[in-house]
Amino acid sequence: MTPRRAAAETADRRRGLGRWHRLPIVLRLVLAVAVTMSLVLSGAAGLVYWRVQQALDEQLDADLATYSHNLRNDLLAGHRLSGPDGSAYQILTPQGRIIEASDLIRTQHLLTGSDITSIAGGAAIRRDIGGLASLDPHTLRLKAQQVQLPGRTVIAVAAVRRGHRDEALRELLAQLAIAMGITLIAASYVGYRTARAALDPVERYRRRAASLADGASAVRLPVPEDRDDELTRLGHTLNEMLERLEAASERERRFLADASHELRTPLSLLRAELDVALHRPRPAAELTATLRSVDSEVQRLIDLTNALLDLEQLGGTDQLARSPIDLPTLIASAVDPYRAAAAREHRTISVDAAPGIVDVDAHWIHPAIGNLIDNALRHSGGDIRVTATADDGRLQLTVTDQGPGFPADFLPKAFDRFARAEASRTSPGSGLGLAFVAGVAASHGGTARAHNTGQGAAVSVDIPC
């Protein structure tokens, strides 16, 4: 086969497969069922036909053998030749000339020249006259053999009619064809209804999901509650996915709104400070104060941008750079930079870190602990306590303060981006600290939790280590 022809055949096969895959799934399933049932029914029908044909042929061959034996004996005994109903005979010379024959085949030449030659050599010939499709009732099965009579040699041809056998086989074929047709139609119909019933829920899911493109909200798929099959579980999974998508969309909307608000405030202040400074000539002291205010707002923008970038970088981290580190050393290195700020407010930061080695990414754990301490310094009073233990392969870290605690309505959304208690709206901060802590915990496969202790607020982090 030439390369061009092989390439053409490959392209034809691909086009054929492409046309097949473009057919509707229901039609493909019905065709598959129809083809499979056709093969099964054809095999079963072929087996039945073969068994019936074999039984009829065995009976016909037994009758022919008996009649041929009786004809030979009658010839040797010199008796008058006869036979049962449905039988016929011919007596031929070695050259093929008919000497004697029954009325049914008196003039019909049943043997060919090659048959006569084979018989002269001592062979016995067995053959059928007429085919199964022929409607001639005088179809025959014959047996011819050489018979040595006193003083001469003849060829004896014994034949029996095949009409009943052929009629039975034709009737069998007709009945099998009718049965196969009815069974194939019934199987195709059942296959179609089954496929349709199985795929109807998928079509309903598709139509309902298509409404999302039209801007519909709170879309849920119509999943029956009284079933537990594969499609029902798929529907529940898709509904859960839609809930998560809706929640993510809502978080994104809030994120954009809060980010716009948080960015608008320092930018508006920057514009106001610059407008005032440019409105008329100012003394150097006023310009310096204006520049310091501008610098403060710019730093606020930088801090907000860095916090957002850290959150996005943390969300895109597929694999943390975990490494073993001594737990007390980890906690001390994260807490020490904040001791001076606490001392200026006449507050203390106590650390209770149990000895042990933890396998974490210190690059992210450090700023997470720092955010917790910074929040405690900003929004609470009294001393701050940091406890850390590593038991059973889990790091449990808690930062508590002695302030007023979290407002009850703030706790459910404490770890959302830009979430800030109303009392802290006027205080410094972007509302991203706890969101960053929750992101660090989640990236390590753990969780973060905020609660009140009765004496202040507490934030706990539980991660595998």
Structure in words:
It is a single chain. By secondary structure, the chain is an alpha+beta fold. 55% of the residues lie in helices and 17% in strands. The protein contains ten helices and twelve strands. The strands form three sheets. Strands 2-1-5-4-3 form a five-stranded antiparallel β-sheet, sandwiched between helices. It has a five-stranded mixed β-sheet with strand order 7-9-10-12-11. It is rod-shaped and about 155 Å long. The two termini are 63 Å apart.
Brief description of this entry?
It contains ten helices and twelve strands. Helix 6 (284-315) packs parallel to helix 10 (433-443), helix 7 packs across helix 9 and helix 9 (362-379) packs antiparallel against helix 10. The chain is of the alpha+beta class and 465 residues long.
CATH architecture of the domain at 317-464: 2-Layer Sandwich
The outline comes out as: rod-shaped
Report the mean per-residue pLDDT as an integer: 83
Compressed to H and E, one letter per element, the order equals HHEEHEEEHHHEHHEEHEEHEE
Q: Can you tell me the CATH class of the domain at 317-464?
A: Alpha Beta
Distance between the termini: 63 Å
Instruction: Determine the CATH superfamily of the domain at 317-464.
Output: Histidine kinase-like ATPase, C-terminal domain
**Number of helices, counting only DSSP H or I runs of 4 residues or more:** 10
Considering DSSP H and I runs of 4 or more, what fraction of the residues is helical? 40-55%
The secondary-structure class comes to alpha+beta
| Poorly predicted runs of 5 or more residues | none
Largest sheet: 5 strands, antiparallel
How many strand segments? 12
Cα-atom radius of gyration: 49 Å
Percentage of residues in DSSP E strands: 15-25%
